[in-house]
Structures are given as C-alpha cells and as structure tokens.
Design brief:
By secondary structure, the protein is α/β, with parallel strands linked by helices. It contains seven helices and eight strands.
Amino acid sequence: MKSLAEALKECEAIKFGDFTLASGKKSRYYVDIKKASTNPQVLKLIARRISDVLVLRSIRVDYVGGVALGGVPVATAVSLETGLPLLMVRKEAKEYGTKGQIVGEPERGKSVVLVEDVTTTGGSVLKAIQTLKDEGLFIRYVIVVVDREEGASGALADADVELIPLVRISELLKNKK
C-alpha cells in the first residue's frame, strides 16, 4: 500500500520554489493539501489514516470538526469514514442568518477531534479550539495531514491539546524530487 507521503508527492501537494505564506513568511516549499483533498483517492487515503489513528490510539469523540477552509473536506471525508457527526468551524462568525461560527449541531459537554490540512504555528487551529470551547465542547486532539514543524505542536501542548500529524514536513522534504 502506498504511503501518504508518497501520495502527497504524486498529487503534487508539495511544491518547491519561492513562496510567501499566509503569515508573510518566505518559504522554499509550499504544502497545498487542497491538491490532495480534491483528489478522491488521496482524500480517501487521508480519511482512512485519520480513522486508523482514532482506533489505534483509542480516541473516542462525539464529533469530527474541520477548520474552514482546508480542514472541511478532510473532516467531511473522516465523518463519512467513521460515521461521526461533522462540525465545521468558520474563521469568523457570519454577519447574517444565524450568525454562527460553528456549522453543525454541537451539544455542550461533548468532545471533538479537530482535523486540519496543514499546521505551521497552530494559530488558526487554536482559534478554532477556543471557538469550540466557548460553546462548551472539549478538544484534546488535533489531527493534521501535514505538520510544517514550526511550532504548532508546542503551541497546542500549551493549550492541553495534542497535535497528531499524519506526515511531518521533514518526511516530505527527504529525498525530494
């Protein structure tokens, strides 16, 4: 069976060159998990790997949550794979309709595993965690497809949340094409 790192390289989710990240930081590589999450075979592989992590680590949760935008297709696939109800966390509350920041039917006191496409410093996922906690939900784990290994693990640990990467950037950068 193909490894996730191999599948990510094959679908060109990792690109090399000169890039400016959302943070404004310069990088010699860019991780575009949207290339993977729009590929049904790779998205299915990601969902299976996350489901395997939940089973192997005996992680029991009530919901799978995805951070908009990149985490939503991954969380949707995991929801379909595991049967867990889906929550989507917007970066900001809407100004219209229900004005909610969480899409889904969360129940106070329940637990959520958040999934994210890529983590760097962990800033966006920490905001999503706070949004969920503000609604009375518990988050102990974040599963990320690729960790860029630039501080997210430590930042989440400071918030009593464990980051579980499926792939670390050091694995993708090893023997690059």
